[in-house]
Amino acid sequence: MDEMLQCWRCRRPGIYQCGVCIKSFCEIHGDPDAVCVVCHKYVCEAHGESDALGDLVCDACRQEMPELYGD
């Protein structure tokens, strides 16, 4: 199996792939609800953060729109 398609934590088949770091996660280690509200890509816990409304926004979208998501 291609290493990119294996879960980064346990080597099971990866079904979720982070849109920022491209690491894959299986159904156990991935969160099906971890999707960026801007680009709609899956986001791992290291590359996403909730905004003021509680919506998940990935680091890539935060950098592209600092006027909305800047610190």
Nutshell version of this structure?
By secondary structure, this protein is α+β, with helices and mostly antiparallel strands.
How many beta strands in the DSSP annotation?
Answer: 4
Number of helices: 2
Strand order of the largest sheet: 1-2
**Main beta sheet strand tally, sense and closure:** 2 strands, antiparallel
Q: What Rg is obtained from the alpha carbons, in whole angstroms?
A: 13 Å
**What proportion of the residues is helical, as a percent range?**
10-25%
Distance, first to last CA: 40 Å
Low-confidence stretches: none
Give the overall shape: elongated
Mean pLDDT: 92
Order of helices and strands: EEEEHH
Salient structural properties:
single chain; 71 residues; alpha+beta; two-stranded antiparallel sheet; 2 helices; 4 strands; 14% helix; 14% strand
What does this structure look like?
This protein is of the alpha+beta class and 71 residues long. It contains two helices and four strands; from the N terminus they run E-E-E-E-H-H. Strands 1-2 form a two-stranded antiparallel ribbon. A two-stranded antiparallel ribbon has the order 3-4.
